[in-house]
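Hi R.,

Here's the chain you asked about this morning:
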Amino acid sequence: MMAGLIRLRLLTAQRGGELLGAKWEEFDLASGWWTIPASRSKNKLSHRVPLSPQALGIVKDLHEISSKSEWVFPSPVKKCPHVHHAQKAFERLVERSGVKFRGHDLRRTAASLMVGGGVPRLVVSKILNHVETGITAVYDRHGYDAEKRAALDFWAIGSTRSFRTGRPGGS
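And the predicted structure, written out as tokens:
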């Protein structure tokens, strides 16, 4: 279960707390979307996250394991998310790998490598659910769902090809 959590953090580039607190009611497995409600989102805005085929596969596997709970990552001892055990699992991963990193580094890595592969920064910002400032943000009400899906599908396949051109390399 914890391996699924870490993989989903990297594949979706979402905040660890938002993923750990996810409930099954937030997922539409048929269409491949996860909607983080405003009440659980750091910026208090509802956020639609497209699930790449790889991420959706992990979520479906988790559903087979934990669908009797309201939580995607249920605690084995309480009726709540799996927070304490997730932190311990992550600490073991860091210790065993010999690489010092934090969970948030997975989000940073995903964002950096998507931009490096040609995904526009605005699309990555939308994936990360960052709040935009500036006058254009007031007028731009586009949801960026198609762009977010294309970017996360590109990221999930680990492509060495450019997002923009489809050719090898970054441009």
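The two ends are 37 Å apart (CA to CA).

Let me know if you need anything else.
M.
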